[in-house]
Amino acid sequence: MSIFISIDPGNKKCGLLLADIKSGNVLEAGISSLNKFPNLVSLWTANYQISKIIIGDGTNCKYIENQLKQKDIFNLIFVNERGSTLRARFRYWEIWPPNYFLRLLPKEILFPPENLDAVVALILLEDFLNFSFIWPEKVDIKIWL
Hints:
Distance between the termini: 29 Å
Number of domains: 1
Largest sheet: 6 strands, mixed
Strand order of the largest sheet: 5-4-1-2-3-6
Shape: globular
Radius of gyration: 15 Å
Mean pLDDT: 91
Helix content: 25-40%
CATH topology: Nucleotidyltransferase, domain 5
Strand content: 25-35%
CATH superfamily: YqgF/RNase H-like domain
Structural class: alpha/beta
CATH class: Alpha Beta
Order of helices and strands: EEEHEHEHHE
CATH architecture: 2-Layer Sandwich
């Protein structure tokens, strides 16, 4: 059992990530509305043998927990998400390096063009496992709203 789900909870949406530690790859990632994420997590738990579900302990984490428990999903671990959004900006540029001209600028002033919720979910999982995942080119950040 090497498949993990990571969730970055928010007020209106959450970042979701499905990753396999055995291969070291992100399998799926995206941003979901709060009313659609429980069905997506249920689908993933039905299709994969999930080891654990990692949830950031910040905004709306209790709501996320309650929604998952209503779907009979209980293998939840809460992790500290302090500073994860800022760190996700740097991780974004590691995964998708900026073009030649932007590379000359300090990373601190670059803002990624994508919504970072899925990358924050990656940061939470990487922190928990102390392991860096590979984000394959074929895995796009999906939007489930």
